[in-house]
Task: inverse folding
């Protein structure tokens, strides 16, 4: 171009007019500018008409400053002329920046939520100091009653000593001390009775705490209940409902603690009490006196009749008229001694002349101390004489207090762990007062004095026990004998908002080290970090949620990039003529690039500022809500990371989206750019490239980079994540793969998009509207390149939303199935220690009382037999003992499958030849068959009867001595085990229901030796799933799958183990013929309410006296999983609104360009008779066809991806697949999409349809 050489470093003064301007008159340009009023006008902006052009190029500097000034002037004039596109761009950037800022800022606050949930679950204690139990029996030569060294074995913590050490450390180190507070705590298991209705009773945990110290320590920040006074208590709401009481209305309860809970609290062994002898005093005090015939303690003159006084060494006639005055004279409670009771007590010695001590013994054989001494309570179950909750038939003695109910506790509020269940709160100072007063009154009772003096005589003590106890109580402080001590971390809020990878683990290590420094590294104290452990359990959930939010940010950013890309491309297409004129006037390429970049920044910078401003205001709401929930100071303001991230997205997205428009603007020749009738959609491009200069094409490069990236991630990053347990990185990779699948399918779907559009068009256009179909199909084809971006946005957003919504709905169902299948029924009771089995008799009696009303059925099971100290393992194999696999051995009741969720009972093979009962879902009840068809199974290799093979040899076993192998072989075959086994054994051990099994039990016969005992086994069934147990058909999980047998076989195995062991003196003897129960499942009646389940759960807790036995409300647990899903569904509804707004703008831009491009055709058609309404419907039908097709493709992609992922998870869990569709989310997305389509197509078409035909043709 001739004029291009006349540019210089200074100003440009043309000597002759530029050659390209020769054929373009200013008059025509002015006419075109004045006549073009629509968005498709191809005119110069005001900045380049008249004086502005002369001023711009007469002083045209080639410097960057000059180019920038020129670009800014041009953009200012263009923006003033056409504000719509600029506003759309600014709104898009502002929306994305706002959403990313608020979302990321609250993701960074989310640890506060998890921290609070951990506090509500574990209590607001960062560290819990509990004593290690080192109790031992008396050493030879030591008194069994008074053993000063036993104080070292009492499981208590001296809080006073720890506090002194802590205060010295804090004074020395000041604010650098990590421990901010320490407080004592006592957790005692007791009984609660309705004082006015004593039959209403329940067990509960008594939380004894120092209200003033805990208030100062900040424990229970959100526990809105006042401090307790004398004889006042706060009680859990479910417990009050069980007792039939209410709060703040003067109701009173009786709190009772057993002696085994009180005596360790009082440190009785350190003052000379031997617990075994003391138990004899409590349970049979008069019998203890009778066991010491040499005792002749004067009790004072007691009127036995008118003329006689006696002491314990006298011989008198005892009858009802003489025994009652004697016992009453001792200060005993004789109200329990009715004439009927006395007749039974006196028996054959009634009215005979016998020694006083012998007669007292005869009476005391049936009376405990609590029957005779006022102030003591009989804690032997729900009523006097019942079996104790632990299954022991002896009477439990304790103290009882009358308390007033103040508040009902709806939620722990972090004051104590939520898992405690029924809780009664008591102030430690008030509790100490009433406890000591009652104990002083107790030891002043004459009968207790007699018993203690008898103990002194038996033990050969020289110091009176009463004096020792009195001196001990004078200096007694509960804080010296704390059951637990809670310590809090000084920088706890700062620490807990971190993840474990960011340093929380390190901070907790320093914190624990400082505590050990206070108590001594060799002290018998265990330190637990309950909140940290609870947070560790939620780490995967937090990482998973982070990936969800990151995915949303990615999709929103992608959609905004597509929108800005469409906006910039639309601007380039509309201003092709203007850009051509600028180039014709001499604007260089880099100046045009700079202009387009500045145009993108004109969207980005205001959008970022507006987005930040709105985000700061809107963020105040979630900041306040999170602060209220976590009960912490509100963290207002935006953190740096969200600002940097949103700034990067706000700048990079417009600049990247500007790449293709810049290439489009620079690729047009001046001839095409200045051709006002040229249309991009109709152009034909011929490009000739020599093969030798072709090189590597762009798509090949992209494909090569993609393959290399996939290989790197697969062979390096994934193994790296597994090796270093970096679950965050692993989830990021998996999440990226899933998003790649969704995006890839969305792009592939564009191939099918035209056919889907035609199908919807054919279904929508009927009757007279069919005349419009050819025109609409022509528009769909002609607008394909422009509408493709709109279709891709709709498809991607819908695919992602449906995928996410379906995935969470499907995973919710999967989690519910896992919970229900593992626990087995509506309510489950599980023991987690062999030493603490269920009280079968008491639980069975209670459930039998509710059977048919609240309870439909219940069934017992056992723990794995290898948890017993008598057993080492149980093993299943073929009869030749190879291959073999160790498996846990359990026993179940006959009605197990009548009680459990039969949905999770999936048999794969059932033994033939039996008349099975049927379960509720019509399957063979193999559990019942274990009992009804016991010992009658015949394998196909057996004849009509069981035949025992001849022994191959006999001899001496070094482990067991001489053994009659023939008899043992006979027993192994004739008394075989009927079993239910997992399908995993088919591949692992090559077994089926018609193959004999070898069940091997290994017994611990000594501390260093074991012996094997084999029994023939016959499988009644092989199962893939079994309710109440973890069962899998995969051979890899075979060691974790149970072997299920009958109770009698289980009990026989335990008895045999006990008879063989040499450790009988150290182990309890199993009850003959009884299998100890370790599990219980309960199925509630149809229509049972939450209150009904609560009643049964609390009722069963009455018979549970250990925290290693848990009662689980499975129905309530399953309900709680729905809360998180509902919150996530609400989140995705908000995301769908945002994506719909972005789709609306891109649809609006596309159809605005379509209308402007086809305005001349529309004008001609209207001139030929097409009405404005019909022309409007052409665009609406086109938009609906486009959107509905995208919706279908997006929905299919989302569902296919979610179903594929869920099926993959189902392969591991083997849970039945249940299709779950996010109906609410789908309906919201459909309504928003159709609304966006109608409005986005109607608005652009409305502007042209309202004009006269002549004006439309003139402006086209």
Result:
């Amino acid at each position: 171009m001739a004029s291009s050489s006349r540019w210089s470093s200074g100003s440009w003064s043309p000597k002759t007019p530029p050659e390209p301007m020769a054929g373009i008159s200013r008059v025509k340009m002015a006419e075109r500018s004045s006549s073009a009023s629509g968005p498709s006008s191809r005119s110069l902006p005001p900045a380049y008409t008249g004086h502005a052009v002369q001023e711009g190029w007469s002083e045209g500097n080639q410097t960057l400053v000059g180019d920038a000034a020129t670009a800014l002037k041009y953009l200012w004039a263009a923006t003033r002329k056409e504000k719509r596109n600029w506003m759309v761009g600014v709104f898009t950037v502002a929306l994305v920046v706002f959403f990313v800022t608020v979302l990321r800022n609250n993701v960074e606050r989310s640890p506060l939520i998890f921290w609070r949930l951990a506090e509500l679950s574990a209590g607001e204690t960062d560290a819990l100091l509990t004593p290690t139990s080192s109790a031992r029996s008396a050493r030879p030569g030591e008194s069994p009653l008074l053993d000063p060294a036993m104080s070292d074995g009492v499981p208590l913590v001296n809080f006073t000593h720890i506090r002194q050490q802590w205060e010295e450390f804090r004074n020395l180190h000041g604010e650098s001390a990590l421990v901010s507070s320490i407080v004592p705590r006592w957790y005692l298991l007791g009984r609660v009775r309705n004082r006015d209705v004593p039959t209403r009773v329940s067990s509960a945990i008594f939380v004894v705490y120092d209200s003033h110290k805990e208030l100062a320590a900040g424990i229970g920040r959100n526990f809105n209940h006042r401090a307790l006074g004398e004889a006042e208590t706060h009680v859990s709401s479910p417990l009050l409902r069980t007792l039939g009481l209410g709060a703040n209305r003067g109701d009173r309860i009786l709190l009772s603690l057993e002696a085994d809970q009180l005596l360790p609290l009082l440190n009785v062994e350190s003052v000379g009490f031997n617990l075994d002898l003391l138990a004899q005093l409590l349970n049979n005090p008069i019998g203890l006196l009778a066991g010491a015939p040499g005792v002749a303690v004067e009790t004072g003159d007691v009127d036995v009749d008118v003329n006689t006084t006696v002491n314990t060494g006298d011989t008198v006639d005892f009858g009802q008229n003489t025994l009652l005055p004697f016992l009453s004279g001792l200060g005993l409670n004789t109200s329990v001694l009715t004439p009927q009771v006395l007749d039974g007590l006196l028996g054959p010695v009634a009215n005979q002349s016998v020694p006083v001590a012998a007669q007292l013994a005869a009476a005391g054989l049936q009376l405990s101390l609590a029957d005779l001494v006022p102030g003591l309570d009989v804690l032997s179950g729900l009523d006097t004489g019942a079996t104790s909750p632990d299954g022991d038939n002896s009477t439990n003695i304790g103290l009882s207090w009358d308390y007033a109910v103040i508040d009902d506790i709806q939620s722990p509020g972090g004051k104590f762990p939520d898992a405690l269940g029924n809780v009664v709160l008591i102030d430690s100072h008030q509790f100490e007062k009433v406890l000591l007063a009652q104990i002083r009154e107790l030891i002043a009772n004459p009968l207790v004095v007699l018993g203690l003096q008898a103990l002194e005589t038996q033990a050969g003590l020289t110091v009176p026990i009463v004096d020792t106890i009195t001196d001990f109580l004078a200096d007694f402080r509960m804080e010296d004998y704390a059951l637990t001590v809670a310590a809090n971390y000084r920088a706890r809020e700062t620490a807990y908002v971190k993840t474990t990878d960011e340093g929380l683990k390190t901070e907790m290590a320093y914190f624990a080290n400082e505590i050990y420094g206070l108590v001594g590294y060799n002290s018998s104290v265990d330190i637990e970090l309950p909140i940290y452990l609870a947070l560790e359990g939620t780490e995967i959930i937090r990482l998973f949620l982070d990936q969800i939010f990151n995915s949303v940010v990615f999709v929103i950013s992608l959609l905004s990039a597509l929108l800005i890309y469409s906006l910039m491309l639309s601007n380039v297409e509309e201003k092709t003529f203007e850009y051509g004129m600028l180039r014709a006037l001499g604007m260089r390429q880099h100046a045009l690039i700079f202009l387009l970049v500045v145009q993108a920044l004109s969207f980005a910078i205001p959008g970022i500022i507006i987005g930040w401003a709105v985000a700061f205001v809107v963020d105040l709401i979630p900041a306040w809500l999170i602060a209220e929930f976590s009960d912490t100071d509100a963290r207002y303001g935006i953190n740096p990371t969200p600002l940097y991230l949103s700034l990067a997205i706000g700048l990079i997205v417009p600049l990247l989206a500007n790449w293709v428009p810049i290439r489009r603007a620079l690729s047009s020749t001046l001839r095409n750019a200045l051709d006002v009738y040229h249309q991009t959609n109709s152009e034909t491009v011929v490009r000739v490239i020599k093969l030798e200069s072709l090189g590597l094409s762009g798509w090949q490069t992209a494909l090569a980079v993609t393959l290399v990236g996939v290989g790197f991630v697969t062979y390096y990053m994934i193994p790296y994540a597994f090796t270093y347990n970096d679950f965050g990185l692993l989830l990021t990779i998996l999440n990226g793969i899933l998003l790649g699948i969704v995006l890839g399918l969305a792009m592939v779907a564009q191939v099918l998009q035209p056919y889907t559009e035609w199908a919807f068009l054919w279904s929508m256009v009927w009757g007279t509207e069919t005349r419009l179909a050819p025109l609409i199909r022509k528009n769909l084809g002609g607008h394909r390149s422009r509408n493709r971006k709109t279709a891709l946005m709709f498809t991607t957003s819908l695919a992602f939303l449906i995928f996410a919504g379906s995935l969470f709905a499907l995973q919710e169902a999967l989690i519910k199935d896992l919970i229900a299948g593992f626990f087995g029924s509506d309510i489950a009771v599980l023991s987690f220690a062999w030493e603490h089995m269920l009280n079968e008799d008491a639980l069975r009696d209670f459930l039998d009382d509710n059977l048919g009303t609240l309870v439909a059925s219940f069934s017992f099971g056992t723990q794995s037999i290898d948890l017993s100290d008598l057993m080492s393992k149980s093993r299943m194999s073929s009869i030749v003992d190879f291959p073999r696999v160790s498996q846990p051995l359990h026993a179940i009741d006959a009605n197990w499958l009548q009680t459990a969720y039969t949905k999770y009972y999936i048999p794969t093979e059932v033994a033939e030849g039996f008349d099975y009962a049927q379960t509720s879902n019509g399957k063979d009840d193999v559990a019942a068959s274990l009992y009804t068809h016991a010992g009658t199974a015949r394998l196909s290799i057996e004849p009509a009867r069981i035949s025992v093979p001849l022994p191959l040899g006999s001899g001496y076993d070094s482990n067991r001595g001489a053994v009659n192998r023939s008899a043992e072989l006979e027993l192994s075959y004739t008394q075989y085990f009927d079993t239910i086994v997992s399908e995993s054994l088919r591949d692992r051990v090559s077994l089926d229901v018609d193959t004999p099994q070898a069940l091997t039990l290994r017994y611990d016969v000594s501390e260093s030796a074991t012996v094997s005992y084999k029994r023939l086994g016959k499988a009644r069934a092989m199962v893939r799933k079994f309710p109440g147990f973890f069962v899998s058909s995969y051979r890899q999980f075979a060691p974790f799958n149970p072997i299920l047998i009958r109770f009698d076989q289980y009990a026989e195995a335990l008895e045999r183990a006990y008879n063989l062991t040499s450790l009988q003196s150290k182990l309890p003897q199993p009850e003959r013929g009884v299998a100890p129960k370790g599990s219980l499942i309960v199925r509630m009646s149809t229509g049972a309410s939450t209150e009904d389940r609560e009643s049964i759960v609390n009722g069963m807790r009455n018979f549970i006296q250990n925290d290693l036995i848990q009662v689980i409300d499975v129905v309530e647990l399953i309900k709680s999983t729905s809360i998180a899903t509902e919150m996530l569904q609400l989140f995705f509804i908000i995301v769908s609104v945002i994506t719909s707004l972005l789709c609306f703008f891109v649809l609006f831009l596309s159809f605005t360009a379509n209308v402007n491009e086809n305005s001349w055709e529309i004008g001609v058609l209207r001139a030929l008779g097409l009405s404005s309404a019909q022309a409007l419907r052409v665009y609406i039908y086109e938009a609906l066809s486009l959107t509905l097709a995208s919706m279908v493709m997006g929905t299919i992609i989302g569902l296919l991806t979610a179903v594929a992922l869920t099926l993959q998870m189902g392969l591991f869990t083997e849970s039945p697949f249940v299709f779950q569709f996010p109906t609410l989310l789908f309906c919201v997305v459909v309504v928003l999409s159709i609304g966006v389509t109608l409005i986005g197509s109607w608005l652009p078409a409305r502007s042209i349809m309202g004009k006269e035909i002549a004006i439309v043709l003139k402006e086209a």
Remarks:
- Residues 127-137+150-268+394-528 form one domain.
- The chain has a mean pLDDT of 76.
